[in-house]
Amino acid sequence: MSPNANHVHRAAQVAEPGAAVRVVPVQTRPPGVGEVRIDVEATGICGADIGTVRNPAPATGFPVTPGHEVAGVIAELGPQVQGWEVGERVTVGWFGGSCGHCSACRTGDVVHCPERKIPGMSYAGGWASTITVPAATLARIPESLSAAEAAPFGCAGVTTFNALRHSGAGPGDLVAVLGIGGLGHLAVQFAAAMGFETVAIGRGEEKRKLAEELGARHYVDTELHEPGAALRELGGARLILSTASSSKPLAELVDGLAPHGRLTVVGFDGSPLQLPLAKLVMGARSVSGHLTGSPADTEQAMRFAVATGVRPQVQTVPLEEAQQALDTQQEGKARFRMVLVPGT
C-alpha cells in the first residue's frame, strides 16, 4: 500500500448544477479487481472538460470530478493486476475502460466500445491528487517526458497523432491543420515530424512566426485569405485536419482538398455541417471524424514525440486554481494546454 493511501487527498469538483469548481478533501478509492490507484502529478484541461463542468445532469450524479488527461505514479495495485508495478509512471486519457467482449473490443478497437468509459464522466476523473482506474487504461511514460508534458498525450496528443498517421497521407504530401490551439499546435508538430509539407491555418499574422516555429512550411491567415482557395493555389491538400472548435469554415475548406483528399475533424462545436455533395463526389473527396486512441497508441505517440522533439506547450497551474485555469481555457487565452498540478 502506498504511503499516500491514507493521506487526505484533494479533488477539484462541481458540487451541483451551475456551481463553480472547488477543491475539496476526498478519500482514496482502493483499487478493485483489475484496477490501480494513481497518485496524480499532472492533469490537463481539455475542451471537453467544459462540457463536463456544465453538465446539469451527469450520469454519475454530483459531485463531479472532471479530467481525462492524467499523468502520475502507480500507488496501489488491485487484485489480479499483472504487468504493472507500484512506482511506474503512467498516463490515463480519454479511454477509461471498455467491456472487453464486444466486437469492437475483440478486434482491438477498444475506443469504440459501446460501453467505453471516460474518466471524469464515467467515474471520478483526474482533477485530483488521486484517481483509481482500470489497469487496461494505462500507458507508460518515457523517462524524458515530464508529467506535465505527458498528461496531454492521453487525449490531445494521441488524437492528433492517430488522425495524421492513419490519414493515408505520405511523406511529402500537402497536409493542412486548421487551428493552432491546444490540439492544433501538436498536430502541426506531428505533421512536420512525419514528413508532410505542413500548412498551418490560423487567424492573424501574429501567429505566422509561431506556426513556423512549430514546423509549418506555410501559414494561411484566414483574416486575409480564404483557406480553401489558398490550399488550391498550393496544389491541393491530401489531408486537412480540423482542430478548431468551429464548424463554420469547413465547407469552404473542402475546396482546398486535392482529388481523393480527406477532411478529418477532431475539433467541433456541435453545429451541423452544410456541404454541397458535389464538392465530395466530383473530387472523390471525403469527410471523416476521428476520436482518440488506445493506451498502446498513446505510448506510441509519446515515443514518437521523444524521438522527434514534439512537445506540448503547457501552462502549469496549482490544482487549487482549477476554476481560474478553466476560465482561461474558455476565454481562449491558454497557450496551449492548461495543466493542473496537485502538488503535495
Largest sheet: 7 strands, mixed
Estimate what percentage of residues fall within beta strands: 15-25%
Query: pLDDT under 50 segments (min length 5)?
Result: none
The CATH architecture assignment of the largest domain turns out to be: Alpha-Beta Complex
Shape: globular
E-strand count: 15
The SS-based structural class is: alpha/beta
Percent helix, as a range, is: 10-25%
Please state the CA-atom Rg, rounded to the nearest Å: 20 Å
For this structure, what is the CATH homologous superfamily of the largest domain? Medium-chain alcohol dehydrogenases, catalytic domain
Secondary-structure element sequence?
EEEHEEHEEHHEHEHEHEHEHEHEHE
Structurally, how many domains make up the residues? 2
Distance from first to last alpha carbon: 18 Å
Characterization of the model:
One of its GO terms (cellular component) is cytoplasm. GO terms for molecular function: alcohol dehydrogenase (NAD+) activity; alcohol dehydrogenase (NADP+) activity; zinc ion binding. Its cofactor is Zn(2+). Keywords: Metal-binding, Oxidoreductase, Zinc. This is Alcohol dehydrogenase catalytic domain-containing protein. This protein is of the alpha/beta class and 344 residues long. The protein folds into 2 domains: 9-155 and 293-341, Alpha-Beta Complex (Quinone Oxidoreductase, Chain A, domain 1), CATH 3.90.180; 158-289, 3-Layer(aba) Sandwich (Rossmann fold), CATH 3.40.50. Helices cover 24% and strands 24% of the residues. It is built from 11 helices and 15 strands. It has helices spanning 47-54, 103-106, 147-150, 156-165, 184-193, 208-214, 227-233, 250-253, 277-281, 295-308, 322-330, and strands at residues 9-13, 22-26, 35-45, 70-77, 89-92, 130-134, 139-140, 174-178, 197-202, 218-221, 237-242, 257-265, 286-289, 314-318, 337-341. The strands form 3 sheets. Strands 3, 4, 5, 6, 7, 14 and 15 form a 7-stranded mixed beta sheet that branches. The chain is globular, with a radius of gyration of 20 Å. The mean pLDDT is 95.
